[in-house]
Amino acid sequence: MTKRSHSRRAPVVSTLLWTTVLVVLVVACGSSISAVRVGESTLAREEVVNLVAEATGDPVSVDSLDASTAAGVVDRFVRFEALVDLLAEYGVVAEVSDLTSARDRLITAGMDPGDPSLPRFIGWQAALDLVEAGVSGVRTAYEAHSGLLAHDLCTSHILVSYEDDAHAVLHLLKSGEDFGDLARSVSQDPGSGERGGTLGCVSLGRFVPTFERAALGALAAGETVVGPVPSQFGFHVIRIDELRPVEPVAFENLGERLSAALLQVAGLTRIVEVESRFGTWDPVVGRVAPPAGPLAPSLARLGS
């Protein structure tokens, strides 16, 4: 395998595919140059607007952006640009042949060659391809940060359907409600709910990536309860029940978890800045979240 140059990427084709200690949040206030920043990569306000327009297929302006849509688009950008930035730090930068191969794969998979998002997706796909190829810098990046992932996850959770309901659960917990009682009364995961939300202790790779990333972020930050954490099942409020460090998984034993591990490391170690109009970066959960709605309707829905 050839060693990649250590030069940082030029203005760049950005990056996509799927998810997952110290992440610093700075809310940028005015400059269009730094509306979103992930390590060395930045987006101006106009570029964020263009991303939202690409994602929705509708013309939009800075002042007419839907907050939830903007946060989701920025969140995707952050997750994959974090991976690109991590790889660049360790000298892994996509070359022309990598980008060409990634483009061919995306078009073969059905992506429209004229899609304005294609250049960005090419960069993200190329980054993931380099990870999966296991080039030398990828191993170095993982081993430099593998301690962040060296935990079994000993957790409980409360699962609800709506993000605002998860905010309401967090409010009730801060008000003194018992986690187990809340899980039994409102959690939509019947198996864990009747046990007070407990999920026991499991190794990494057993939960969905967003759940694992949030739990790892909580462990790194020394926090006990985190949320809202989105997944295909709804929104989770997660409690860390036990600190259980383990030996990091050896690089050669990661197998299919390699991409997930590098995405998690990237999200846990990159500096991220997001202007507040485009969402709020939560460094523990590892997510750009939209503004929370009013608590009253959710509290009523939860019977509180």
For the secondary structure, the number of strands is 10
Mass-distribution shape: globular
- Strand residues, percent: 15-25%
Termini gap: 59 Å
Helix content: 40-55%
For the report, how would you describe the main beta sheet? 4 strands, mixed
Model regions low in confidence, pLDDT < 50 over at least 5 residues: 1-33
Count the helices. How many?
11
How are the strands of the largest sheet arranged? 1-8-2-3
Structurally, the number of domains stands at 2
Order of helices and strands: EEEHHHHHEHHHEHEEHEEEH
Q: What do you see in this structure?
A:
With 304 residues, this protein is an alpha+beta fold. The protein folds into 2 domains: 25-145 and 267-282, no CATH class; 151-244, Chitinase A, domain 3, CATH 3.10.50. Helices cover 43% and strands 17% of the residues. The protein contains 11 helices and 10 strands. The chain has helices at 45-56, 67-89, 96-108, 118-133, 136-145, 163-174, 179-186, 190-193, 209-221, 258-269, 295-301, and strands at residues 25-26, 36-38, 41-43, 151-160, 198-202, 225-231, 234-245, 272-274, 280-282, 287-289. The strands form 3 sheets. The protein has a 4-stranded mixed sheet. A 4-stranded antiparallel sheet has the order 5-4-7-6. The protein has a two-stranded antiparallel sheet with strand order 9-10. Strand 6 and strand 7 form a beta hairpin. Helix 1 crosses helix 2 and helix 2 crosses helix 10 (258-269). It is globular, with a radius of gyration of 20 Å. It starts with 24 loop residues before the first strand and ends with a helix. Mean pLDDT is 87; it is low at 1-33.
